[in-house]
Design the sequence.
């Protein structure tokens, strides 16, 4: 299959972004083609002067899209009010078949730190209205930020009640999604919902899987409520893949083609900027967002560049590979970028948004043995030590790590020496539970038993699904762990399980 990395397709897309032309090539949208905005709307990558607006035209969400093979003009507008009466900007962009008739409108010229509303129109159909918000201006005094983070939304395992609750949060500045937006596996028996087909490997299959997930009304509501800042983990491609190394037996050529298809589908369905347009099996995703003088958000990609998991992966004792200096979670270029950004940051809080648990955790409570999850930073010990040593030496203000992947809630003090509980705490880590993905009750019991031998672990809960809500001021960071009462009830209530604070200048979390 020839993917969109072809130069002709890429040039066509670049030429069409933000412009409307070639009337002879344009497929008109007729009123009879109902439901073309069935996947909703989204915005993302907020800057001080603008955001990305996203939608995709999909009359047949699970049948390849159904829009044909010609470009379609899509009108967009941005307003000061939810009723779309005070329109500030409008334009027309082409939705191209090469990009599954998705559009990514990069809006500029907006005011910092304020809410806007947006909408699309194609032919006679009008999309839902979405709310977005620009970032505070760099260096501007900011007294408060509120954001949510989430991950791991396996469609089959549960409903998205957590997203319905998230969409109702007042004054939400942005949402961070930390990966596993889709799951690649085929359907599983005895689940409340079903995947649309077998394990996905082709571009059309990845597109259909994203469409299945995005048809969920609660997910659509969360996208329409605030701008999203996204990164991925493994299931957007293949479980536990590392760089171009798959989980199981696939030829290098086949996996490169699969990763290219997965990356293209990811871009097509996320509110990402043109700089992230994929080039075959490569996509630029690590990036940085400045929120006035209050926070700097360093968004990391811990899949595309990492070295292979050591010791054969999984839960095992460490072998020498896990301690190797050359082993890398981020890759050399991204690691240098992160350290340079932390060094230059003047923000009060430095947030590292990433995928797998950074803290050490020995799953075996017996003193004479040890077990570690080698897909996490515990399999990349030297890389973690380089980062934590840098935090201890250079002391960027208030480093906080937010983490997905683990399907459970954790709070950690990140120590300069995990073997010495009395060593300095150099940062704080909050790992959020899954939106819907299951967590083993047996593993919960095993981890609970291991807690006393990991004293830097301040909290663990593997029993509930949900998301994490963070409120930041110059003096304090507060994390609220929001959990769903019944994940297989689409109307389930959501409540706060626990809350923690980090005080300015004092790394480490305290329960309140």
Sequence:
């Amino acid at each position: 299959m020839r993917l969109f990395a072809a130069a002709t397709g890429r040039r066509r897309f670049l030429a069409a972004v933000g412009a409307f032309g070639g009337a002879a090539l344009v497929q008109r949208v007729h009123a009879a083609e109902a439901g073309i905005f069935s996947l909703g709307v989204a915005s993302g990558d907020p800057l001080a002067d603008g955001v990305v607006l996203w939608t995709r035209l999909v009359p047949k969400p699970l049948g390849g899209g159904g829009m044909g093979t010609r470009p379609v003009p899509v009108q967009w507008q941005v307003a000061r009010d939810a009723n779309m009466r005070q329109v500030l900007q409008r334009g027309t962009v082409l939705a191209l078949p090469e990009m599954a008739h998705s559009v990514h409108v990069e809006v500029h010229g907006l005011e910092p730190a304020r809410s806007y509303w947006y909408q699309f129109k194609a032919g006679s159909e009008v999309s839902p209205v979405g709310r977005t918000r620009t970032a505070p201006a760099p260096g501007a005094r900011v007294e408060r930020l509120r954001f949510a983070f989430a991950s791991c939304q396996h469609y089959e395992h549960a409903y998205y009640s957590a997203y319905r609750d998230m969409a109702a949060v007042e004054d939400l500045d942005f949402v961070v999604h930390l990966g596993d937006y889709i799951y690649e596996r085929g359907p599983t028996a005895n689940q409340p919902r079903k995947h649309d087909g077998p394990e996905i490997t082709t571009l059309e299959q990845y597109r259909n899987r994203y469409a299945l997930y995005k048809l969920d009304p609660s997910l659509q509501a969360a996208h329409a409520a605030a701008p999203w800042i996204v990164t991925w983990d493994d299931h957007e491609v293949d479980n536990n893949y590392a760089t171009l190394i798959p989980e199981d037996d696939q030829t290098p050529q086949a996996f490169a083609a699969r990763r290219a298809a997965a990356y293209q589908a990811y871009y097509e369905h996320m509110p990402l900027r043109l700089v992230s347009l994929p080039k075959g099996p490569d996509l630029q995703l690590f990036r940085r967002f400045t929120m006035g003088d209050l926070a700097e958000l360093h968004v990391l990609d811990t899949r595309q560049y990492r070295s292979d998991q050591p010791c054969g992966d999984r839960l095992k004792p460490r072998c020498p590979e896990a301690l190797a200096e050359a082993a890398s979670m981020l890759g050399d270029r991204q690691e240098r970028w992160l350290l340079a950004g932390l060094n230059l940051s003047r923000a009060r809080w430095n947030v590292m948004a990433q995928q797998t648990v950074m803290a050490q955790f020995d799953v075996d409570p017996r003193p004479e043995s040890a077990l570690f999850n080698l897909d996490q930073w515990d399999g990349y010990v030297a890389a973690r030590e380089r980062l934590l040593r840098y935090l201890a030496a250079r002391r960027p203000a208030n480093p906080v790590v937010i983490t997905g992947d683990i399907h459970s809630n954790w709070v950690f003090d990140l120590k300069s020496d995990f073997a010495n509980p009395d060593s300095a705490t150099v940062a704080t880590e909050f790992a959020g539970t899954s939106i819907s993905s299951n967590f083993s009750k047996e593993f919960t019991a095993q981890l609970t038993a291991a807690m006393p031998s990991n004293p830097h672990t301040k909290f663990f809960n593997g029993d509930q699904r949900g998301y994490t809500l963070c409120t930041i001021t110059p003096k304090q960071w507060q994390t609220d762990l929001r959990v769903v009462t019944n994940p297989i009830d689409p109307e389930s209530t959501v409540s706060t399980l626990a809350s923690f604070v980090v005080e300015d200048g004092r790394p480490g979390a305290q329960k309140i």
